Amino acid sequence: MSLTAPVKWAQRKGSIFLTIDLPDVNPDTAKIELEDKKLTFKGTSEEKDYHVELEFLNEIDSASEDTKYSIKERGVSFFLKKKEEGSWNRLLENKQLQRTNVKCDFNKWVDSDDEDESNNFNIDGMQGMPGMGGMPGMPGMGGMPGMGGMGGM
Prior knowledge:
Strand content: 25-35%
Largest sheet: 6 strands, mixed
Helix content: under 10%
Low-confidence stretches: 129-141
């Protein structure tokens, strides 16, 4: 029996950034199927089998050249183009799976009020859906501006 793979997500008005949060997924045995309304993942991490089927709340554009994924050391990263721009109040149609296996990726999340064009996801190095090449590490978040004068504990 396979375990349910944990998922993290963040969004912008025109895209979703999704991570299947499993380290060392074997790219040779991983199976990823992406449709406009559904993502299916099967793979092995740390000698355990994982599976997750995600039925999205709204449609993504699985045929877009902007829709990409990459299998990396710390998980499988997806950049998914939304069919229609706008904010989703959750990722999945299934509220129970959303509650038990999907978490917000606060490292990538931006409030829709704070969103602008300069704050898009960094997808440099991601391959299109047919390719499964590696993606260089995402650059870290910089320090908070104006906090240099605060002392440590």
